[in-house]
Design brief:
It contains 4 helices and 8 strands; from the N terminus they run αββββββββααα. The chain is of the alpha+beta class and about 180 residues long.
């Protein structure tokens, strides 16, 4: 009886010490294997990698929910990128939503992720609309620029839904 009680207490105490650590920031880089996949690195607020992160964490990658397995603070996204495109990576935990919008440039088999501030997604269309109202002669040019902006975003994987989700997440973090 004492042995069973001891094993029960041991099981309870070990589960208490193996709590998951929250990921509140992450860095996105190309996988070390150079296989057209992205690696997500758990980081602190100063962009220093957190090597103690291990286990399964749920991320949303361009709208697809993925269970990513972190080992030593690094997880590889299983989706391969065929061409340059926008990638929206989001992770939710008890401390809120943590997300990044990236443009991943693919050239000669290597990936180069560039983080895009969501503020630019708001500012660029607003500037074009203000120019249209300020200079009525440029209505056609402004509409063409807006259509080119929407087409470029959509053709590179940034759908209208993801566009607005990125903006709303940015606004939630700002307020």
């Amino acid at each position: 009886m004492k042995r069973y009680l001891f094993l029960l207490l041991l099981a309870i105490s070990s589960s208490a010490f193996s709590q998951k650590v929250d990921i509140n920031n992450f860095i996105v880089k190309e996988s070390l294997l150079k296989n057209s996949k992205l690696a997500i690195i758990a980081a602190d607020s100063l962009e220093q990698p957190l090597e103690q992160i291990n286990g399964l964490y749920t991320f949303s990658v361009s709208g697809f929910s993925q269970q990513l397995k972190f080992n030593g603070g690094v997880a590889v996204v299983p989706l391969q990128l065929e061409r340059s495109s926008f990638v929206y990576i989001k992770h939710e935990n008890d401390r809120g939503t943590h997300s990044k919008l990236l443009y991943v440039y693919k050239k000669d088999g290597s990936l180069t992720p560039y983080q895009i501030s969501s503020i630019w997604l708001i500012i660029f269309p607003v500037i074009i609309i203000v120019m249209i109202f300020a200079f009525r002669r440029f209505i056609i040019i402004g509409v063409i620029l807006l259509l080119v902006f929407i087409y470029f975003n959509h053709s590179n994987g940034l759908s209208v839904g993801t566009f607005f989700e990125t903006i709303f997440d940015t606004l939630k973090r700002a307020f």
